[in-house]
Please model this.
Amino acid sequence: MSMGSGGPLLGSGGFFQPRGPRGPWAGCGCSSFFIIIAGILLVMGGCLRMLGQ
Amino acid sequence: MGQIVLRLFSTSVPHDPRLSHCRSWLSAFIAALAVLICIAGCSRPFEGEGPGHREQALALHPTQELAIGREAFAELLSDAQVMESGADVDRVERVSRQIARTIEIEPLQREINLHVTEYPFEWEYRVIVSRQINAFCLPGGKIGVYTGLLRLVRNDDQLAAVIAHEVAHAVAHHASERIARAQSMGRGFSELSFDREQESEADHIGVFLMTFAGYDPQQAVAFWNEMAAVRGGQLQIPEILSDHPSDRRRINQLQSWVPMAKAAEAAYEQGRIVPAHR
Model:
């Protein structure tokens, strides 16, 4: 990124950053879904293991 | 089919109660669009870098984009009630011209990585008498604004926010990109509407365009806040199932981009620009 005395220069791409300070563009949400499912499966696995002992 | 076309080229307020159903006059346009898509389908999508230097495959060559825009605009207007003159027409022309001028700012093109110099834009602006709260910008720069939207926006800055968003779709070649995606994935016309990434990108580019056009980008945030309030009591489609970002996400994103757009415009005014040829 080209920097001038007062920050990036126009044309460097320093201002238009698709992945902005508050995170990337809206995702499809699939990753969150899989993380939740993985969590549920872990808990269920733990419960089954406890019951099996 | 008409609903698909309107979704392809317009955005704005998808769940508003006043948003009426699309008109049958779009059907003839569909035929023309289908022919052009078939022609485009004969050639492989060409790969390149889109806005923000992301990967972007496009299906249409510059002249094809313009041809689609011309055809669609003529078809849309042939059955619509077009306002010929008056304060609304003057207002839409004034704001649209301001937005369109920003496309010619070369350092801004490089900042966003817009590919517009090789694309012929024939800017036209029309006001359509309709209760729909909607606006569109067809490929090639054919802008239409519905009077329903004009009654809703509180000032020119808010109108600029909507028009800049629509122009952003056109200058980012989103329609061409969607056709390329549909071709590569073997999907039908139902998959041609702008997706959430493109909507967010149009918001992002739009904030820069309206700022460089001299409008207050904070009014984009204000407009969508008001839209969220209008829709407050209605059932909203969960974001995961919708083409559009949720209101909250949209507002948060816009809010985060406003200072960057203002800083970019200040850099331009101060001459802090990367030299074009180094």
Remarks:
- The mean pLDDT of chain A is 71.
- Residues 30-52 of chain A form the longest helix (23 residues).
- The helical segments of chain A are 30-52.
